[in-house]
């Protein structure tokens, strides 16, 4: 009900108090020290959670694709895939 009344009358309308709710005033401005503390906390949180932006993610690249050779019983590369495997002889999915 509170949300509906605030939406109808407006957040800062003094008539909200007639319905028993407190009018929300404007937020106070943060001091320079508080802004610096907030920025430092956000930076440390991103480091702790390994959060990166799109440009940092884009910079992370795999060096090369890994290669895998499956050898048969006599040490020769096999061309058959094991049972239940859907990869073809050249390593592509069928």
Task: Explain what you see.
The mean pLDDT is 81. The longest helix is centred in the middle third of the chain and has 17 residues, at 32-48. The chain has helices at 2-9, 32-48, 54-59. The chain contains 3 helices and no strands. 33% of the residues lie in helices and 0% in strands. The two termini are 59 Å apart. The protein has a domain at 2-54. It is elongated and about 90 Å long. The protein has 94 residues and is mostly helical.
Entry keywords:
mainly alpha, single chain, 94 residues
Helix and strand succession? HHH
Portion in beta strands: under 5%
- Approximate helicity band: 25-40%
In angstroms, what is the radius of gyration? Answer: 31 Å
Low-confidence spans: pLDDT under 50, at least 5 residues? none
How many beta-strand runs? Answer: 0
What structural category arises from helix and sheet content? mainly alpha
Gap between N and C termini, in Å?
A: 59 Å
Chain-averaged pLDDT: 81
Shape, principal axes of CA atoms: elongated
The helix tally amounts to: 3
Largest sheet: none
Brief summary:
The chain has 94 residues and is an all-alpha fold.
Q: How does the SSE layout of this entry go?
A:
Layout: H1 2-9, H2 32-48, H3 54-59
């Amino acid at each position: 009900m509170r949300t509906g009344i605030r939406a109808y009358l407006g957040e800062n309308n003094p008539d909200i108090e007639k319905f028993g709710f407190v009018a929300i005033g404007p937020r106070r401005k943060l001091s320079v020290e508080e802004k610096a503390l907030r920025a430092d906390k956000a930076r440390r949180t991103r480091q702790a959670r390994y959060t990166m932006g799109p440009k940092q993610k884009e910079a992370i690249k795999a060096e090369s694709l890994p290669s895998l050779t499956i050898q048969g019983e006599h040490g020769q590369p096999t061309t058959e895939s094991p049972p239940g495997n859907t990869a073809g002889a050249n390593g592509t999915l069928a």
